[in-house]
Write a structure and sequence with these properties.
With 223 residues, the chain is mainly alpha-helical. The chain is 83% helix and 0% strand. α1 packs antiparallel against α2. The termini are far apart.
Length: 223
């Protein structure tokens, strides 16, 4: 009984494939028959044309055979068309059947995979994951936090940085003033010594003037 049951199921599954194979074979046979009839039609047409002026009876007989072959050809072509339509329908139905089998297997696999899950379990799993991620971030922040109470204040750093910048600016301004004070003074051209003889009083007066000019020059030069 079991053999009959499973054998019947196997035959049921193989029936569409067997029908498709048989239909294709029969269509091929009819196509060969069609090709033979077309050859016969062409031959009778050629005979009729050749005998139309020589032997009218032979030409008429050839035309009758041609008409007979043409009628048979139309019947076979109609049979081929019917078989091809049936073949297409069976192939389409078989494809739909195989598609449904595949979809059924897919649904069964998905059902088996989702057997231990439901939306509540998924939500709980996502909550657990989020909780662990948050905990990991808190642990990371705690590990990265400096030890002890010597916490550095950002405002204090900003004030210290501003003081350093002001100190640097003051230093530059001081250096600029010193540079200007140390610039060389233009040399003052001394008057040429008088030529020829001069009166003693006039010579002393000129020496006094020279001494004054020299002292002024020394004072300008810081000597």
């Amino acid at each position: 009984m079991w053999g009959y049951f499973f054998g019947g199921q196997q035959q049921k599954r193989e029936l569409p494939k067997k029908a498709i194979v048989e239909l294709r074979e029969h269509i091929n046979t009819l196509n060969k028959k069609t090709a033979h009839l077309e050859t016969q039609i062409q031959a009778q047409d050629k005979i009729a044309r050749a005998q139309i002026t020589k032997n009218k009876a032979q030409a008429k007989l050839a035309l009758k055979k041609k008409k007979k072959f043409e009628t048979e050809l139309v019947k076979i072509e109609n049979q081929i068309e019917s078989l091809e339509t049936q073949l297409t329908a069976i192939e389409s139905a078989n494809l739909n059947l195989e598609t449904m089998k595949a979809m059924k297997q897919g649904a069964k696999a998905m059902k088996q995979m989702h057997g231990d899950f439901n939306i509540d379990k998924v939500d709980q799993t996502m909550d657990d994951i989020k909780e662990q991620v948050d905990l990991s971030e808190e642990i990371s922040d705690a590990i990265s936090r400096p030890l002890g109470t010597d916490m550095i204040d950002d405002d204090e750093l900003e004030d210290e940085l501003a003081a350093m910048q002001q100190e640097e600016l003051d230093t530059k301004m001081t250096n600029t003033k010193v540079s200007k004070q140390q610039e060389p003074v233009n040399k003052v051209k001394l008057p040429d010594a008088p030529k020829g003889k001069v009166v003693e009083s006039d010579k002393e007066e000129e020496e006094d003037e020279d001494e004054k000019a020299l002292r002024a020059l020394q004072a300008e030069m810081g000597l």
